[in-house]
Amino acid sequence: MSDSLPARAYFLACDPASRRSSTALLVRAAAVTDLVLRGNLRDQRGHAEPTDAAPTGDLLLDDLLTDLRTHSPASWRALLRRGRNDTLQSLETQLSASGLLEEGTTSFLRRKVLVPADSSRVREAHADLKRALAAPLSEVDSPTAALAALAAASGVGVARSEARKHADRLAELEKLAGPAVPALRKAVAGRRAARIAAFSGGSGG
């Protein structure tokens, strides 16, 4: 569980500045991408299609795969948007049960939140991201390439300025990650446009 792509993405997003809604979208995209990389999901004319590959053995991924078999075919973007909050909550439940998350309290308003039980998980996720951006491409495996590409597409863990700086490298990493990355980028752009439209409508005279 701790080595799954959604778990690695979750620890990468463990930052007070990260929006929970953005984290949910990133984790959902990471779970979908994990299934693609494992051979359980493939692209069929722009839609996600489950394959006949054996279950992964990961409860979160296999539950997601079962759901996909029920709702397929679905566009990649629709797949990312549907059930993203449930996927995030399921992941947190499993990470907590594994002792990788524990209950903490925010300094402001003293709200109870889940935090990594071991901060090294967060450091490892960021180290993986840096390696994906700087190491020779031949030394970057597909899951790590996907982690970086998904983080950049979601805006979580990678600043826009950093993404622009490494645009060529990220384009190469995206080729190793699969169809969920462009779908994630479109979903994020759609949410951003909706927020801007809502703000403009509320503040316009």
Automatic annotation (TrEMBL):
It comes from the Bacteria. It is a peripheral membrane protein. The keyword Membrane applies. Pfam families: GPP34 (PF05719). Gene3D superfamilies: yeast vps74-n-term truncation variant domain like. It is found in: Golgi apparatus membrane. The keyword Nucleotide-binding does not apply. Its main location: Golgi. Keywords: Golgi apparatus, Lipid-binding, Membrane. This is GPP34 family phosphoprotein.
